[in-house]
Each structure stands twice: as C-alpha cells, then as structure tokens.
Amino acid sequence: MLGHDHEDQVCSVARALEAVGQRWSLLIMRDLFVGVRRFDALVESLGVTRSVLTRRLAHLEEHRIIERVVYQHSPLRFEYRPTAKGQGLLPVLAGLMQWGDRHYPHPAGPPRVLLHGDCGGEVDATSVRCVACGERPEFEEVHALPGPALADPSAGHRPDVL
Amino acid sequence: MLGHDHEDQVCSVARALEAVGQRWSLLIMRDLFVGVRRFDALVESLGVTRSVLTRRLAHLEEHRIIERVVYQHSPLRFEYRPTAKGQGLLPVLAGLMQWGDRHYPHPAGPPRVLLHGDCGGEVDATSVRCVACGERPEFEEVHALPGPALADPSAGHRPDVL
C-alpha cells in the first residue's frame, strides 16, 4: 500500500501494510482462511487475472505469510496455506468483517458467522474470543461458516466467497 | 482495493475494503487516530501528494468515515476527524499494529503503545481491552503514545508518525 520510500517508516501499521496492503492481498488471505486454497479456485473466487494473482502469491510467500503445500504428487499440485505469521492476521480480517457487517449490511444478514470449532459457540470478531466458552480459539479452530446472506439463494452469491 | 465489479460481492471483508482498502486510506485513519488531523500535517506525515490526499479524504468523507470540523473561523480552517463509523476501525488498525510489531519489529521496541486514558493501563491490541482494569475503552479513551522506537533519537523518526 506504500511506496518503497516508506519502508523505513517507524510505524508498525505502515510496515504491516507493506506486506499485506497491496490490492487483493487481504482478500487472498480471506479466501485461504475460508478454505479456497488452490490457484484456479482463487482466480475464480477473486475475479483477478492469473498474472496478478501469481505476483501477489509470490509476494506473500516471500514475506512467509503463506506457504505452498503439496496436495497431489502425480502430477505435482500445490495449494496455499497461511503460515503461523499469516494466521496472525485473523484479528485484522475479523475486524474488517465485523465493520463491513455493521456498516455495509447485506439485507439478508451477515454473509459469514465465525464459530468456535470445539464448542460451536459464536466467535466475537473484535476480541476473537468465543462468546460461549470464553476461550480465544487458535486460527484452525475458527470456522467462517455461511451466514444468512450466503444461505439466501436469491443473493446470487458464490458459496465459496465470504 | 477492489474494482467496481466487486461492489456487489456478498462479503463483508470485500465491502469494508471498498471503503478503506485504497492505498493510503488506512494510514490516513492511523494519522487521524494519533491526532494528525490537518491537511498540511497529513501531507507531511504521509509523504503523499496533495491531489491524492484530497481524493482519499473526499472518498472517506463520502463514506461518512471521517468528517470535517471547523477549528478556525477567520480564515476558515477545517480538520478531519473519524466519525463513530470511522472509530469502529480501531480494532483493524490495532490488529495491523500488533501484527507489524511482532513480525516487523523495530530494534528499539514498539513504535507505539496503546494506553487506556482513564486508568493508564496498556490496551491489548487484539481484544482492544485494557489489561489493567479489563474494560474495553471507547475510541477517544485509547491513547497511542510513542513507544521505545519513537523515543529513540537515533531512529530518525518524525514524532507525529506511529
């Protein structure tokens, strides 16, 4: 999001946005979070060109925010997964989701709800804490399930998109 | 951050990024949050051109994320302040700050620490909750004070930048 002249800025927000502030980067992370992890599925979900997606994935991989994991050996096929560092962006994505839910609401209700896999309780997006059991679940225990707007067949959505 | 073809996407993250995902927008919100609120001060703090800043501020004002407030009548002068809607982005900014602190650390320590104005306790950036008193302070009660990296005279920082 910043030019190279800002790389030395003494600001953690600016440094974070150097890594994930480019167009598409946070939406790629959103897709990886909800389970869209293969190149072709990302192209379709995002409506981005293959060349732009290639560049964005390479940038995120250089920053060790995502990693390639083999899911098929013959022929060799990879998918992309958030690293532990990438998983640390969950509060940022959850915060954007909650803010979007509140200020740009879908008429049918929230597109996604965050649930705690262990107990099924809803996860508060601000605190990333389960409202049922009070725990703060790890990344892999938070499931972003389709909410009312994505369960509404008139909404014209693609089910793999938040 | 998205093209216009994504405005109807059933996704609250995408809708949020339509409003604040453009280059500079979240850094403008960071500056307003720490008290840099006048046009010339924003130009200097961000190193952005006046024409780009004008467009970004107009976009944020259209979305009612910021508002202009008169601070001088003769001649008439405005400053920009986050609205209640804009203040709702605090968890997103705090999340980016904490992630940047952790993964792109400054050698001298965090550039900013968040303190709860009422009790002076540190505010946890993930939960936006005061670790001393347990309250979740309102936007105006959270002070982003210079931390070790901004107190370090060798860091070459501008004191008004996070």
From TrEMBL, chains A, B:
The keyword Aminoacyl-tRNA synthetase does not apply. It comes from the Bacteria. It holds the Pfam family HxlR. Residues 11-108 form the HTH hxlR-type domain. PROSITE patterns: HTH_HXLR. Keywords: DNA-binding, Transcription, Transcription regulation. One of its GO terms (molecular function) is DNA binding. Gene3D superfamilies: Winged helix-like DNA-binding domain superfamily/Winged helix DNA-binding domain. The keyword ATP-binding does not apply. This is HxlR family transcriptional regulator. It comes from Pseudonocardia alni.
